[in-house]
Amino acid sequence: MLRIFIAASLLSALIFPAAGNPAENKCLKSVTLTLHWLPQAQFAGYYMALKKGFYQQQGLDVKILHKKPHESIFELLKKRKTDFITVFLSTAIKARSQGLDLVNTGQISQKSALVFVARKDSNIKTIKDMHGCKVGIWTVDFKVIPQVLLQKNNVKSEIIPVVSDVDLFLWRGVDVIVTMWYNEYHMILNAGINEDELTTFFFSDHGLDIPEDGIYCLERYWQKNPEICRRLLAATMQGWRAAFRNKKKALRLIQKYCKAGHRPFNKAHQQWMLSKMEKLIFPDNQNCQGRLSASAFKKSVKILQMAGVIKAVPTYNSFCRIADLSKIERGNDVQRSKSGF
Amino acid sequence: MFRDRSLAFKQSFYILACVIIIFAVIFSFMAWQIWKVMVNGIEASAMNAAKAAANQLDQSFLVAQRTAGQMALMMENESMNEQQIKVMLQTTVKSLKRELPSVYGGSISFVPNGFKSSRRYFMLYCGYDENRQLQLRQAGSDKYQYFFQKWFTLPQNLDRSVWTEPYFDDGCGNTLMTTYSVPFYRRINGKKCFMGVVTIDMSLSWLRKLINSIKLHEDGYAFLLSKFGRVVSHPDPGLVMNASIFSIAEEKNDRELREVGRRMISGDSGYVDFKHSKIYAGKCLMFYTPLRSNDWVVGIVFPNDHLFAKINNIELRTSGIAAAGLILLLGVVIAVSKRVTVPLRRLTEATAEIGNGKFSIKLPEIKSSDEIGTLNRAFSSMQKALRNYISALKETTAAKEKIESELHIAREIQMGILPQIRPPFPHCSEFSLFAELIPARAVGGDLYDFFYLDKDHLCFVIGDVSGKGVPASLFMAITQTLHRTIAALDKSTGEMASEVNSSLARNNETMMFVTYFIAVLNVRTGEIEYTNAGHNPPYLVRDSQETELLNTLHGPPLGISDTQYGTSRLTLDSGDSLLLYTDGVTEAMNADLAEFGTDRLEFIIESSLSQLDIRNLVAKVVSTVKEFAGCAEQSDDITVMALHYNGDQSGM
Questions:
Q1: E strands within B147-234?
Q2: Chain A residues touching residue B261 (CB < 8 angstroms)
Q3: Is B143 part of the contact surface with chain A (CB cutoff 8 Å)?
Q4: Sheet holding A134-138, edge to edge
Q5: B145 part of contact set with chain A, CB < 8 Å
Q6: Which segment, A101-105, B238-242, B405-409, is predicted with the most confidence on average?
Q7: Are A32 and A81 in contact (CB under 8 A)?
Q8: What is the DSSP string of B493-525?
Q9: Within 13 Å of residue B66, how many CA atoms lie on the same side as its CB?
Q10: Closest to A264 (Cβ–Cβ): which among B150, B241, B246?
Q11: In sequence order, which residues have a C-beta less than 8 Å from that of residue B357 and are 6 or more positions away?
Q12: Of B506, B497, B527, nearest in space to B647 by CA
């Protein structure tokens, strides 16, 4: 990872020789990035990139905003209130298929963090055991994937819509609840239920490994500013690496953002979230950091089609406009060898 | 360790050491007892405080529960129109507010299209705004789909009333709230159907005030956890609604705390003695009890260090008193020890002076009748006795010296009685004679004598008076005088002995006696006439080195009875010798009480006579006896007399 970091730094130094010193760089490009949830460790990489000046080094003056609960993130984009947004891949594909000219300019999370949780004492050992049970699923738009998982297994459950907490599960109002591994799952643990008292069904283990958080902008914007999109991603990935390298510092930064957003900061929870984000962004056996692989895209589209969420299918190339970082890094290597290194 | 220390030091040390140990044991026991009493007291008061707080909270919650329950019952009446519902909600909230100032509002909501099939949303909300004015409005809309809210879904899915987990209500000034939700049902086609929810919202600020007002002994505090362990009230506002007891445990990596949290939310009351908990910097006790209404938990933390501080304070003060007491005790012990040891020391000094000979030194005055007084009196009488003894000793010594000087004179006289010329007859070539007498005391009882009866006849005598000392010496003097008087040429030695005997035996009331050997030598012929009255037989050593013992006895020692003694004769040839001795020689003893004996004497005679003249023979015998006796005290007078016959020199 260190090697990549050095290569990336070297690369930025080569391409933007003046970017190293923000004071000298008077033509920083202003960019607005709206994150799709309230301040938390899910966004530590963005905070870190800003704090450490990685965006500035890339010639960007990034303004980070958080979507307010009642706002629609796509509305913000449509109304040009933001240049970039972060959103789940499935949500983005759905929006694209519904006609929003959305392009993916970076895929941060590489794995699905969705997990069905049941209590061991409810005797649900397989997905099939959920048949006839009450399953709590979010009312918001990523409810589709859990439903696909149930459909795939021919399980007919009573779907209970839940808002973003796990109270219904804690009260035993539902037998199973869908959670994010980095968020709601930990809320269950934080209500005094031990991990060994729970049965978990990670979507990634059940053929539904749809990557989540990605960076998006409108196609028009990308066409005009492909370089900005690429630089934003490069700096963001640099920020994530820095955050995972120094988790204590990242946590302090998250705490600052929480405070600014008038949101309580629970250190244990944010720590948990940060450590899980690392597993999602830099999975052990994958090497497509920051970018959406064609296979993951195709799989996701297929699942969404199956679920009947989308009808029109965008092509990978039209949807995914991520500058291939690794290609650039390789190009850099070539350059170096040519110049006699 | 203390061998060289004074008695006072030893005594003080041991007494103080014992007292300190006793104090320490008493202190520890006391501290333990106080600790127990305090913990018991705190247990009782903390548990009471927790239960009282829980009861108080329950009271309010139960009033709200009752009211909401009544409204839900009303709502099961299908004939209620919107206006009636509005009036009911408004009056209920108003009247409840009077009873419970913390009531924030209430609502009645129907399932989608439940109130009227044409009307998707029905959520009537009645609450107080920031100006404390009661507002009534319809809240449901596409933007606020209330039927997904947990206060709606929980009673819907659980089929029972619930108190929701506390939450911040954004609408009304970010107030911490909890909602009591009661489901209501109606019969549709004879089937009981869930129709909606009646809620009462309560502000929790009054509750937090109540919990925060519980103070136990300065450092103790109370807190409130929700049904799932979330911190609802705590002195640290940073934890409220932000942390749960489990997240605190995770953050502090405290497994024990997590387990405690699980017990707390399980519905039991209890108490925990945290030894290493990280919820408080140090040891602490925690008591908890649940609320009956909503399963929330009141906890009371009581830091132990406060208890310890109290006990330490008590101990510190007690230690101060103890230290003062110890100092006092030390003073008393030293004073008492000094009262004992100072007279002792003075006595010791005085005794040392007495030891140096100052018998008249004044002993210290001790009037007490304790052991020291007794000792002093004992010393005093000892001193007196010593003084008397010494003066008596002086007198005795003077008397003894006088006696000794008299004895010395007597000895001179006695020795004067014995013939002193040595060699006695230097002009006589026919024989040579030598005698030695070593008295055991100043004066002795042995005697020897030699004198000429005429120019050819030499009379020589040896004797040993029974007993020793002055009486023996007097008896010896008498004997010596007697035979000098009686001896005459015309008398045989037997007659001479008989005469001496009859003189001695007469008036011999002390029954003293003397062994006696008398002989007359004709120096011309060598003929000897002799009588032995109970004396050791003399040795006759012929010139040919043959030794004979003249063991003829003519009677008992002189002085016993009137006896006539016979006479024996023999002839000395030239070169023959006679050795006479008293039993002081053969009965001389060494330190091992072995006697010198005749064997040793004979050995000397046989081995030495040929080489030595008789003077040296006598000296040899005396020195050998002395050598044999060594350091042993001489018990008897030693007398040795030797005569060597050279033959008639005139005829040659």
A1: 162-163, 167-169, 175-188, 191-203, 215-216, 220-225, 231-233
A2: 192
A3: yes
A4: A158-162, A134-138, A176-180, A114-119, A198-202
A5: yes
A6: A101-105
A7: yes
A8: HHHHHHHHHHHHHTT-TT---EEEEEEEEETTT
A9: 10
A10: B241
A11: none
A12: B527
Find the length of chain A: 341
CATH 3.30.450.20 residue ranges in chain B?
A: 22-199, 207-305
Q: Is the pLDDT of residue B133 over 90?
A: no
Confirm if A143 and A100 have CB atoms less than 8 A apart. Answer: no
User: Could B251 and A190 be called an inter-chain contact, meaning their C-beta atoms sit closer than 8 Å?
Assistant: no
The DSSP symbol for B361 reads P
Q: How far apart are the first and last CA of chain B?
A: 96
B261 touches chain A (CB under 8 A): yes
Q: Which of residues 205-244 of B touch A (CB under 8 A)?
A: 227-230, 241-244
Question: Tens of pLDDT along B140-161?
Answer: 888 888 888 889 999 999 999 9
Closest CA to A324 of A292, A285, A278, A283: A292
Q: Please provide the DSSP assignment of B230-290 as one string.
A: BEEE-SSTTTTTT-BHHHHHHHTT-HHHHHHHHHHTTT--EEEEESS-TTTTS-EEEEEEE
Specify the pLDDT at position B373. Answer: 81
Q: What is the pLDDT of residues B560-581, one digit of tens each?
A: 888 899 999 999 888 888 999 9
ipTM above 0.95, yes or no: no
DSSP designation for B633: P
Tokens of B67: 């009211």
State the architecture of B22-199 in CATH terms.
2-Layer Sandwich (3.30)
Q: Which of A163, A173, A265 sits opposite B157 (nearest CB)?
A: A173
Residue B219, amino acid: D
Running DSSP on this structure, what letter comes out for residue B595? B
Residue type, position B361, single letter: I
The reply to whether B245 touches chain A by the CB within 8 Å rule is yes
pLDDT value of residue B168: 80
Q: Which two tokens stand for residue B425?
A: 């007859």
Instruction: Give the residue range(s) of CATH 3.60.40.10 domains in chain B.
Output: 418-645
Q: In what order do the strands lie in the sheet with A29-35?
A: A60-66, A29-35, A84-88, A213-218, A102-107
Q: How far is CA B517 from CA B387, B493, B513, in A?
A: 54, 9, 13
The CATH number for B207-305, chosen from 3.30.70.270, 2.10.270.10, 3.10.400.10, 3.30.450.20, is 3.30.450.20
- In sequence order, the 6+-apart residues with CB closer than 8 A to the CB of B233 are B204, B207, B208, B211, B212, B222, B223, B224, B240
- Residue A140, chain B, CB below 8 Å: the answer is no
**CATH architecture for residues B418-645:** 4-Layer Sandwich (3.60)
Record the tokens describing residue B353, joined without a space: 């002076």
Q: Across the strands, what pairs with B555? A: B533
Stretch A131-147: mean pLDDT, rounded?
Answer: 83
Q: Which domains does chain A have, with CATH numbers?
A: 2-110+211-338 (3.40.190.10), 114-206 (3.40.190.10)
Contact in structure between B204 and B166 (CB atoms under 8 Å): yes
Backbone angles phi, psi at B80, to 5 degrees: -65, 125
A9–chain B Cβ distance below 8 A for any pair = no
Query: What Å distances lie between residue B332 and A290, B11, B282, B328, CA to CA?
Result: 90, 11, 44, 6
Determine the angle formed by the axes of helices A325-338 and A2-15, rounding to 10 degrees: 70
In a 3-state reduction of DSSP, which class is residue A121? helix
Cα–Cα–Cα angle for B565, B566, B572, rounded to 5 degrees? 125
Contact present, A60 and A52 (Cβ < 8 Å): no
Question: Three-state DSSP class for A283?
Answer: coil
Instruction: Give B52 to chain A, closest Cα distance, Å.
Output: 26
Cα–Cα distance, B583 to B464 (Å, whole number): 8
CB atoms within 10 A of CB A60: 22
